[in-house]
Amino acid sequence: MTSVRLVLVLSENWTIVGGCDLPRLVDIAAQAEDAGFDGVMLSEHVVLGRGADADGVPENPREYALPGNQDPSTPWPSSLVLLSAIAAATSRLRLIAGAVIAPLRHPLALAKDLATLDLVSGGRLIVQPTVSWHRAEYEALGVPFEERGQRLDEHLAVWRRAWEPGPVSFEGAFFRFSSVFVEPKPFGPAGPPLWFGGERLHDRLVHRIVEHGNGFNPLGPPSSGDLDRLARAMAEAGRDIAGLELVGGTRASFAGPDDLGDLGEALSTVPGQVDRGFTTICVKPSQFIDDADHLPSFCREVVERVAALLG
Prior knowledge:
This protein is an alpha/beta fold. It is built from 10 helices and 10 strands. Strands 4-3-2-1-10-9-8-7 form an 8-stranded parallel sheet. It has a two-stranded antiparallel sheet with strand order 5-6.
């Protein structure tokens, strides 16, 4: 039987559990682990402001949060703090910090936080750094929006050095320091695995994946041409795309604004994704159920249905 890793999306489940009911989210993560899920994913924003809902909020609140469709008052808890609590309540579950908006922080401070969480979880952390999309968020934190891509690239270079034996020095366009020690180190010598993704596979994203990536988590299904291009770039760098974790997912369709999606229909896409090389599948529970008390049975059902589809 071909197997896949199942990831429960914990963010954006406001129709199941309030965005500020963080103890309940910790409980849900533990339930997912008990049911056989491999990981949980949390995304983040630091703040939301004007333009967050420029494209209008979804008619059905169970839809995914995407650029431009978010109510500015939406609660986004600190993913790293919440994942620390989940680490303490679980033993096997991978902790996926999705959409960590690195340019909004100093790379040394973020490298320390990530290393600490990785260490306290016993090496279960996965990080997906991003530049994100919300200009008002950058303006509120005093970071130039136009510099976000260059700043992320410097973050990645700093993290690599910070997680190696010290002392560490760096001279970049935005960050400079000399002979500092960043302790403690992450659980493993290379630091937590890094995933990358986005709405399109642009040149800079390809470079980040090739240079730093352990996984590719695109926003929406990539084309066969995109995967071929990525495979060629990996091969040119002496890497094999087969060693890259390809992350797919399910997405429900809704008949109306108050309707749930059909789980069987959504899961029916999994075998096709596996055939394309995807080994990890994300599932957002609020697309299919409305009652948090049903989450344990829902998680077990997903695990059983996917196993049957791939058996």
